[in-house]
Amino acid sequence: DGGPVAELESQVAVLLGKPAAVMFPSGTMAQQSTLRVWSDRLGSRRIAVPGLSHLLHHEQDGPRLLNGFEWALMTSDGVVPTVDDLAAVPGELGAALLELPLRDGGYLLPSWEELEAFSLACSDRGVPLYLDGARIWESGPHRGRTPAQVAALADTVYVSF
């Protein structure tokens, strides 16, 4: 209770406009834990991800092996997923993940309008939107938005320092 970690968590929660924040020792652990919580709550290990998600290409298949995730690819190339890409994924989903920016796609960002529309589509479908916002501190201002404005569009957000 208390201490520097609790203070950091409190400050990050305020910066993102979220009710709470939790510090993890690694981004890999944070992201898998968050997706696992959502998928457990919804009873589906299917996670909608961009085809170039770093979870697919840089985690040595750990998220699937450790958590039983089934990746539902929204795209197969270096483009940011759209509302139509999400709609084309059939069946139940435990979560939808967007990377801000899509690093392996050349650091692509959706427009603000595209991000708002994607958030609304997730909400309408009853699918939690999880933002990998490792670069939210740069990508938000690039779109003229605060980190809290970006985070408000998602159910959960990952950030790093």
Pick out its properties.
single chain, 161 residues, alpha/beta, 5-stranded parallel beta sheet, 8 helices, globular
Helical fraction: 40-55%
- The total strand number stands at 5
In terms of per-residue confidence, which ranges show pLDDT below 50 for 5 or more consecutive residues? none
Q: Give Rg in angstroms.
A: 15 Å
The backbone outline, from C-alpha atoms, is globular
Output the strand order for the largest sheet.
2-1-3-4-5
Q: What is the average per-residue confidence, as pLDDT, rounded to a whole number?
A: 93
Biggest sheet descriptor: 5 strands, parallel
Order of helices and strands: HHEHHEHEHEHHE
N- and C-termini, Cα separation: 22 Å
Number of helices: 8
| Structural class designation | alpha/beta
Beta percentage is 5-15%
Structural overview:
The structure is a single chain. This protein has 161 residues and is of the alpha/beta class. It contains eight helices and five strands, in the order H-H-E-H-H-E-H-E-H-E-H-H-E.
What is the compact description of this entry?
The chain is α/β, with parallel strands linked by helices and 161 residues long. The protein is 44% helix and 12% strand.
